[in-house]
Every structure is written in structure tokens, then in C-alpha cells.
Amino acid sequence: MRLEKWSLSDGTPSILCEPVAEGKLGQRGLKIRQQMLDRGIELKPAGQVVGTLVLVHGRKARKEDYLLIAERLCAVGFRCLLADMPAHGEHPGQMIYYGVREAGLPVRLLKEASERFHFAPQPAGLLGMSMGGSVAVHAADQPDAPWRALVVISSFDALGPAIEVQAQKMTGAWLGGLWAGAASEAYSWRSGLAVSAIQPRVHAARLRMPTLIAHGTQDHVVPMESGRRLYEALPESLVKQWVEVPGADHDNVLITDFPIYATVAEWMWKYAR
Predict the structure, then answer these.
(1) For residue 255, what is the domain's CATH number?
(2) 35 lies in some domain
(3) pTM of this prediction?
(4) What are the residue ranges in the chain where pLDDT is below 50?
(5) CA nearest 17: which of 64, 56, 71, 63?
(6) Which of 39, 192, 194, 213 has the smallest number of CB atoms closer than 10 Å to its CB?
């Protein structure tokens, strides 16, 4: 894929990834194209762009960590846009608010990229993982959200309970409760935002675009039940899909034998092109 680095008008470091022709595809690109063909999907020739996807990374990650995801999605025809979230990578911001205050960043990335690199901003899809899933759900609930499809991987329905689960697994039920309370208070003091205000499920209930939510069955960071509650918060009338990745933990959900990339690519191919 072809890469271009630049920064948004607010200083957010970003990367544009665009598809390349068939002869320049690597093994990952060739594999996902074959998987899509095996699913009966007739792809455009490699190098042709069918839509644009914004990818939102998780906590303790940065935009470059998602280049291998972008490589696969570019191989099936999607232009991908990556950006460092606040307090991550090279972003000048000092705090992350899990989408409460960053909800406008994905659409700003799409808008400024389309203007800078001279492409139509539609059709467009949005993908977020873990913390990025929370940001993506908040972004998808924005007024006039441009996203035709949404994918959320290994994310949560509410941040507070997710912190409590992690704390209890590390220190036990009693100490875990104290640790979680102290961590929540510290975050609220530093950010000016109560942890209880970070509830993606509230925004999920108002979504209007086809949404796929995937989660590893052995996730020890964000329990699968939290992801399932996020899925169940989606409107009943919505086109949606719940995907369980067998045996996957939080950090390896994208690298098991389960064809998660093909599953994501198929969803975006159906609804975001």
C-alpha cells in the first residue's frame, strides 16, 4: 500500500494508506483477497478504491500499530486513514476521554484527508478496537455521522465496570474494588470527566448504520460479557452481527486462526462501498 503522513489542522498526526496494484501485494494482501473470493465476493482489481475506512486504535497503541490491519483492508479495495489518539503516539494532547470529547476526530480525519488528497469522502466506514471502539461508537452517534458501516472489536459497554473487572483479577475482589475506586477517582481528577460518564452503550442504542461487534471468548482485559452488552444495546431494528473469536484474548484477537480480517472486510464490502 502507498503511505502518506501528515497532520490535521489541530496537530493530530495521521497516515493515509491507499491500495496498490496486484503485482505489488504482499502475502497478507493475497491471503485476504483469496479468503474473500472463497466467500463468493467478487473483488475489484487490486489498486481500485471502493471506499474509505477510518481505523481508531486502542489504549497504549498508536497509528503505526494498525498498518498491518490497513494493509489487509487496502488489499480488498479500501483506502484507510489512521490517526494517533490524544495521549498516544505523537498526539500533542495529554488526556484521552474514550470518545466523550474525541467523537469529532474521526469525521475530521475523513474530511481533512479528502480535501488534502482530493478524493470523495463517501462511501466511508469506521472501525475501532478496545478504547478505539468506545471512540468509534461515540463518533457514530454524532449528528450527521457519515459512516455507512461500523465495526467494533474487543470493546466495552461502560468503562467503570471494565476497570473493576481488571482490578479484581489483579488484586482480588475486596482490594480490587478499592483499587478500581482509586483509579477512577484519579482519572476524574486529572481529566475533569467522571468515569461513570463513559458509557458507549448509551450511544450504541442510537446508532443507525450496520454494526458488527466482535470479541474474543477468553478476553481477560474486557470480558466478552461487556462486549455482548454493548451489542445488545444496539437497536433491534438495526442491521447488526455479533462475532465471537474462539479462544482469543484481548491482545491476540486479531492473530488467531479465526478469519477476523476477512469477516471485517466482508462487512465493510457489503455496507461501506
Answers:
(1) 3.40.50.1820
(2) yes
(3) 0.94
(4) 174
(5) 71
(6) 192
